[in-house]
Amino acid sequence: MSTDRPTPTTKRAHKHFDSSKLWSPAAARYRNPIICADYSDPDVVRHGDDFYLTASSFNCTPGLPVLHSRDLIHWQIINHAVRNLPSERYQQVQHGCGVWAPAIRHHDGRFWIFFPMPDEGIYVTTAIDPRGRWSPPHLLQEGVGLIDPCPLWDDDGNAYLVHAFAHSRSGIRHRLQVVPMAPDASQLMGEGQVVFEQPEKHPIIEGPKFLKKDGWYYILAPAGGVEEGWQVALRSRAVFGPYEDRIVLAQGTSAVNGPHQGALVDTPNGQWWFVHFQDAGPYGRITHLQPVKWQDGWPLMGLEQDEHGVGEPVSEHPVPAFEQKASPVLLQDTDNFDTPTLGLQWQWHANHHDDWYSLDAEPGRLRLFAQPASGGRLSDAPHLLLQKFPCQQFTATTHLSLPQDGTSVSAGLVVVGATYAGLLVSRQGDRLQVQRVQSDASDELVVLPDASSSDESVVWLRVEVHGDATCLFSYSGDGQSFTSLGGSFQATAGKWIGAKVGIVCTGDESHADFHSFQVHKRTTNEGSKVAATALPPTIS
């Protein structure tokens, strides 16, 4: 039996989000988004007093980021569960493929991440310590179009897996299926059963999360599409149903478009919270936190539930209550390349190789060894070293040098999504030349005519990203006085991911040395109607 579906209040999808308040250590309230960066399809598990989050990583490696928090507000990257993707095809960039929505759980003394690759199948990896080494991905179920898996270990020792289907591969977009699973997740057992399929009420239902509470089986699943959808709760007294359904979160009168897909998680003191994403265009899928209370066996999310139990997102709310206050931590962005390993914020654009870079060749610098160009499309280069936009408004500056004999190499700073732009430095004799590159309407590489040269062997490159995702590039010979090069560039989302910023070194031989990559976040921006910060935007 299902409840009558109320029509969610649908507004024009809002891409702007206000997170202008900085975190205060004495704050009693937080402001959404809690993570103003592209951690798509987040799932969270609590183990003791610690929370762990993982998210989709698509074609980027290392994949499956693992984030840690003690308060559900402040998060920091602690690991990646997958080094490279388990298929040779990912030696080249496969836009929008790779790792889709994962699920993270703790069971039988270890952490488990189930993740789909829609062209290959469903995989699982495990670790006793989420900061340590994760097991090589095990192919649990081969198949095209199987996505968004989530396990459930029942009280009687049996195990099950719920999953959805990728319409682009299977032609199905509104079906959830539960399949018996070996308790050790070595294999699925049988065909399983379709447990929910109501396309007239909940089209494009996907991203299911499985849990059991007070004798009820629950499947939490988003419906209606990424930009304008809603969150659905399904419940049943039997694992295979029948399931009744209720919309528990929708945009309503808020500015948060498509509030859905995420994790329902409890705290040690019995509070419940829902971590979900909001599609923010070129900024990707940013992370929000909603309070949850249980009533009549249903999770009520957000605030101002209507007579049907449909809540809407909060813009701010009292922080979760914990016995001990956690020390604030921040997501990584700046990297001075003065540690033995790359910062965990960095990802390559495809499967990567250790010989693409060195942190030992010139201590205190990152040496990128030149890799061959990829047919003129910078966005197709697997050796792009990128990180997510860390907030809505920021400045990224990198300082690099080329060797005297590096005449066949170009290196620089790039912003990459479906379109791309950047500044590339190359050597012309004993001079360095800075060129602006940008994809045109046909997504071909173009070099803007206003190139400049420097007599110095080093150069600073900078991009300023404003609140509407417009980017301004500039260069400097001394790191103090910067000169703009080219007009503004409108950053765009990639295939299922937000725009990224980073560095690259391309050529037939030689290398480039990057001295640092500095990120400065801004909370005000003249000419922009929206202010933002990457700090967890909590107010006192």
TrEMBL record:
SUPFAM superfamilies: Arabinanase/levansucrase/invertase, Concanavalin A-like lectins/glucanases. Residues 334-519 form the Beta-xylosidase C-terminal Concanavalin A-like domain. Gene3D superfamilies: 2.60.120.200, Glycosyl hydrolase domain, family 43. GO terms for biological process: carbohydrate metabolic process. InterPro entries: ConA-like_dom_sf (IPR013320), GH43_C2 (IPR041542), Glyco_hydro_43 (IPR006710), Glyco_hydro_beta-prop_sf (IPR023296), Glycosyl_Hydrlase_43 (IPR051795). Pfam families: GH43_C2, Glyco_hydro_43. GO terms for molecular function: hydrolase activity, hydrolyzing O-glycosyl compounds. Transmembrane segments: none annotated. The active site is at D41 (proton acceptor), E206 (proton donor). Keywords: Glycosidase, Hydrolase. The record marks D148 as: Important for catalytic activity, responsible for pKa modulation of the active site Glu and correct orientation of both the proton donor and substrate. Belongs to the glycosyl hydrolase 43 family. This is Glycoside hydrolase 43 family protein.
